[in-house]
Amino acid sequence: MYLRVSEADSLSRMNGPGFARLAPALVLLVAAAVGASPEDERLAGYATAVIERDLGLQVVSIDVRDGVARVVVEALGDQPAERVAAALTQIEGIERVEVSEQSGDGLANPAASAEEEPQEDHEPDVEPFPRVELFAPLIADPRQPRFAVSYQRYIDDEELGNVASANFGETFALLGGPVGDGRWEFGILGGVFSIFDMDAESFDLVNADYLGGLTASGRRGWLSGQVRLYHQSSHLGDEFLLRTRTNRINLSYEGVDLLASADVQPWLRIYLGGGAIFHSEPSLDPFSIQAGAEIQSPATYLDDVVRPIAALDYQSAQERHWHENLNIAAGIQLENPAISGLRLQLLLNFFTGSSPNGQFYERHIRYAGIGANLYF
User: Are strands 268-281 and 252-265 parallel, antiparallel or unpaired?
Assistant: First the structure.
C-alpha cells in the first residue's frame, strides 16, 4: 500500500520537501482511498525491497497498478534509472516501470521508463558486481551450486540405503552491463557436493565432487541464457574406501555447457540446452543434453511468506548411452523480500538415472529424498 507518483507530486508541490518525506506515513489512507488490490500491494512491497535492499536507494513512494510500477526515489546517485527499471521488470506481475527522482524542491523529476532506450550517458557499459541475477538457479538440477542439505533413501541399492547429502556453493556475478535491449553478466561459480553413509558406524563420507568455473549470462525480457566453462573432479571418502575396498576412479574433466531459459508465463519457466566435455580422465564420451520446467505459484500464503513450487530436471549423456536422468522436486519456498533476499526451499524429490556422484557415475540409482536449499 503506497502513494502513487502523481499523488506524491501534488502533495510535494503543496508542502515542499518536508511533506514529501512524510508520504510513506500516509500509505494506509491513500491506499484505502484508491482501492489498491492485495496483489498490487504485494508487488509494491516486493519492488520496494528490491530497490532499497539490492540497489541501495531510498524509496519516497511507489504505486503498482495493472502491471505498471511508478516509483519515486530520493536520489539515484550513481545508479542508472534503467537499472532500477530492469530489476523491477524481472518481478513477476510487473511489466513496465516508470522511475522518478525527487528534486531539491521536493518534486518528482521523471528519470526513465523500462520501455525507453537506455541513455548511454547515464548507464556505464560495464558495472562491477551487479546485483540483478540474470539467469535464475535451477531448482531441480542435482549439480546446481547452492547451499543445501538433504536426506536420501536409496531404493533397491546394493551398497547404500540411508544417505545424507551436504552441498555448498554459489554463482557470483563480477561484471555486468547493458547490451542492446538486454543485459549481460560475467561471473564465477564454485561448489562442493558430498554424500555420507548414514548406516556406517562413523557416518562415512562416500563421495565428494568439486566444481569450479566461469559463467557468462544474458537476459532480454522473458528470455535468458547462460554459458559455463567449468572443471569438476571427484574424490572417494577415506573411511568408505577403507571399509568397502571400492576401486577408486581418478575422475576429473573440463567442459562447457549452454542453457536457454524462457519465462513463458509469470508462473512457468522452461529451459533447454546441452554441453560437451573437451578433456577428461579417464576418457569420457563428450556430449550431453539437459531440459526442464519450473512452476512457482503466483499466489503466496501466510502473510506472503510461503510460495508453493515444483520443478523437473531431465538430463542425458552420451557417456551413459543416453540413459535418462530424471529429478522431480516439489514443496514450498519461504521468502520475505521486504526484509531479506534469502529464499529457503523445502522440497520432496525423487531421482532415477545414472548417479550424479562422480565416483559412481556408471551406476544406476533411485532414491526419494527430502531437503532444504538456501539461496542468497
Answer: antiparallel
Cα–Cα distance measured from residue 296 to residue 308, given in angstroms and rounded to the nearest whole number: 6
Q: Give the whole-angstrom CA distance, residue 85 versus residue 116.
A: 10
- How far apart (Å, rounded) are the C-alpha atoms in residues 223 and 237? 41
Helix (H, G, I), strand (E, B) or coil at 213: strand
The structural domains of the chain, with segments of one domain joined by +, span: 5-123, 128-375
Instruction: Give the chain's mean pLDDT.
Output: 83
E strands present in the chain:
59-65, 68-73, 96-102, 108-113, 127-128, 147-154, 162-179, 182-197, 205-220, 223-236, 252-265, 268-281, 287-296, 306-317, 324-335, 343-354, 364-375
CA 158 to each of CA 11, 193, 247, 366, 368: distance values in angstroms, whole numbers, following the listed order:
73, 22, 16, 12, 16
pLDDT at 42: 78
On whether the CB atoms of residues 330 and 346 are closer than 8 A, the answer is: no
End-to-end CA gap in the chain: 26
- Contact between 179 and 125 under an 8 Å Cβ cutoff? The reply is no
Across the strands, what pairs with 228? 215, 257
Share of the chain above pLDDT 70, in %: 82
CATH class of 128-375: mainly beta
pLDDT value, residue 224:
95
User: Residues 6 or more apart from 171 whose CB is under 8 A from it?
Assistant: 137, 145, 187, 188, 189, 215
> Block means of pLDDT (10 residues each) for the chain, length 376 residues?
38 41 42 55 81 78 87 77 80 85 59 48 74 88 96 94 96 91 93 96 93 95 95 90 78 96 93 96 95 94 93 96 96 86 94 94 95 93
As beta bridge partners, residue 261 has 224, 271
Going along 180-320, which residue ranges are E strands? 182-197, 205-220, 223-236, 252-265, 268-281, 287-296, 306-317
Q: How far is Cα 224 from Cα 23, in angstroms, rounded to an integer?
A: 37
Q: Nearest 5 degrees, angle CA 52-CA 58-CA 64? A: 75
Residue 347 CB burial class (10 angstroms; 0-12, 13-18, ≥19): buried
For the CA atoms of 236, 237, 238, 239, the dihedral, rounded to the nearest 10 degrees, stands at -130
Contact between residue 348 and residue 332 where contact means Cβ atoms under 8 Å apart: no
